[in-house]
Amino acid sequence: QQQDDEQYYATQFLNQAKNHSSEVHTSCLTFLLDTVENTDYAWNLRRGAQNILQQLLLRSKDCRELFANDRMRRYIAVISEGRGRAENHSAESVHLVEDVGAMLLQLSAKFGQFYPRFSVACRWLEERKGVRIAAAQSSSLDPASSITTSTGGFSIAQLRIGRDAAMLR
Fold first, then answer.
1. How far apart are alpha carbons 69 and 85 in whole angstroms?
2. Among 153, 129, 152, 75, which Cα is nearest to 107's?
3. 54 has pLDDT over 60
């Protein structure tokens, strides 16, 4: 089964790269986004595609522009819904949301001055989904780039509550 899946995805990848007239890395990005967004695929496949997607976004300006301008809103919406076919649905969906949040956090730290949408999307995920992005960082992230260092370890919602309390005084 796994070997058939790998062959199928390799064929899909080659067809996708061949059919697109744009450069290969943006075609790969589109294919990976579609794979992660497809809720019929297994969680481990979606998370694996997410990891490769992160590497593409870190290395390619064209991929970051395509993602930030065209696909990020839909991608975040699909990921935050947390649907899938796995039995341990809720745990796996949380892991995927954490992976996406960690990716957005890393992109925000490296490219936030050029792409402020990464920071906004990361904050939205943290606030709306209740996932502590800074606590969910993978080992590949630089600890200096976490939200906890810039906000003192509080979530955005907690910072807003503190701000409102200070304004009342």
1. 29
2. 75
3. yes
> How long, in residues, is the chain?
169
Domain residue ranges in the chain: 2-168
CA-CA distance, 53 to 149, in Å (whole number)?
Answer: 26
Compute the distance between CA of residue 107 and CA of residue 137 in angstroms, rounded to an integer: 12
Give me the helices (H) in the chain, please: 2-19, 24-37, 43-59, 61-66, 72-81, 89-111, 116-129, 147-151, 156-168
Position 50, amino acid:
Q
The proportion of the chain whose per-residue pLDDT surpasses 70, expressed as a percent, equals 68
Q: How far is CA 90 from CA 14, 43, 87, 132, in A?
A: 33, 11, 8, 16
Condensed to tens digits (0 to 9), the pLDDT of residues 141-168 reads 433 333 343 444 446 776 677 677 767 7
